[in-house]
Design brief:
Layout lengths: L1 H32 L5 H29 L2 H24 L22 H37 L1
Helix pairs in contact: 1-2, 1-4, 2-3, 3-4
Length: 153
């Protein structure tokens, strides 16, 4: 039970970071919509943050997989699959000569981010990730408390 509680505590910390990143994502897209930020600066900032978000999500899902929390893994799978798909498409579309980390274009491309459909998608994505992260945060608290209560019995 100690490893399971540790996984939930680690997930709570990671998810708090994901909540911060989701709020930042929503604010950054809003700044882009209102022309407070130019698309190149937006993409230079958001692409590395998205990669960080994907890594944290992968670690959290892998932790729950390792400790055998299957329901929690199932809760995390939709966002994990979405993030994996976006990252895969960014690597497939990227030229092999220019690494993902050193380029402006990546998940978000400055030449297309100002299209209305791309902005709407980015806004919707930010809000969905925020709501998912908030749901997951409370689910992890519930999971931690239930595992600790079961450990005392």
């Amino acid at each position: 039970m100690g490893y399971v509680a540790g996984a939930y505590i680690t997930a709570l910390i990671g998810d708090a970071g994901l909540i911060f990143l989701a709020v930042h994502h929503v604010i950054a897209v809003d700044e882009l919509k209102t022309d407070f930020k130019n698309p190149i600066d937006h993409c230079k900032l958001m692409n590395p943050l998205l990669l960080t978000e994907y890594i944290v999500q992968f670690i959290m899902t892998a932790l729950f997989l390792l400790v055998g929390e299957w329901i929690t893994v199932l809760v995390n799978i939709p966002l994990f699959a979405y993030n994996f798909n976006r990252l895969y498409r960014a690597f497939v579309k990227s030229p092999a000569t220019k690494p993902f980390f050193n380029r402006v274009s990546g998940i978000y491309d400055p030449t297309s981010i100002m299209n209305s459909d791309q902005l709407a998608r980015a806004t919707k994505e930010g809000w969905i990730k925020l709501f998912f992260s908030l749901f997951a945060f409370f689910y992890y608290i519930y999971g931690l408390i239930s595992k600790l209560m079961a450990n005392e019995s």
